[in-house]
Task: structure prediction
Amino acid sequence: MHIFKGMLQKTILRPVEFEGVGVHSGESARIVLHPEGPDRGIRFLLSGKYIPASYRHVIATDHATVLGAEGLTVSTVEHLLGVLYALGIDNLTVEFLRGREVPILDGSGYYFYKALKDAVLELRKEARVLQVVSPLEVGRGQAHIRAEPYEGLCVFYRGYVRGLLQEGTARYCGNAKEVVFARTFCYEEEVELLQRRGLARGGSLKNAVVIGEGRVHNPEGLRSKDEPIRHKLLDLLGDLSLLGARLSGRVFSHLGGHALNYTFVKALAESSLSTSLRSSSVSTPW
Ligand code: ZN
Result:
């Protein structure tokens, strides 16, 4: 891997606010996204302290991605980050005015996308892009994620939905609309277990798809036949953003989740660091 310079960095034109419940904590949250200048990256601001949206600050990956610094944590960051990554937004601050879990809204990235898509501002500085120059793969059990060289970014997620879809592949190659609408989901039998573990306290049929025996509990049904697979792709985009740089490459995930996404991002970042340290033409990437 190496770092090269390419497209321009982006932020947002104006502050944008979101309010709602946190799906795991059940607590009410209010966040405001503030524009930032170049090279600031994406950061969360809580109680006057910044937590960078970086793989270096991942402290948990159990059913959501949790970031932390200086004893503070912010959770369920992946849907918002997935939308920011798909829109190519490199710099902004997510300030928590209340709570510390990103509002789940309707369980997808749709409302983030809707509010931000026309508020993107290009900055006069080139973006940092990490280019995959040789294949890299991580795996755990049946799941694996692989990166291959490619000009641009194309991300594939292959998986199944128990009782509903034997196998399907979702693809993101630049069209955010194909993934942002897909809602988070869980299986019927997981609900009680999740709640017993203190998770999904804010979960409801208004912000999550619940899948039972060959059917979904939500009266409105699925937004697409492969909605859960597309959601896993949105999660993956959010976790990829923790690289702290844009990615140029093709990524294939088979059954990956937050934990493996994290392992993958860390491996990608570390491999790029070791390459840049060896190369005299490339300075420290970030
Ligand atoms: Zn998710």
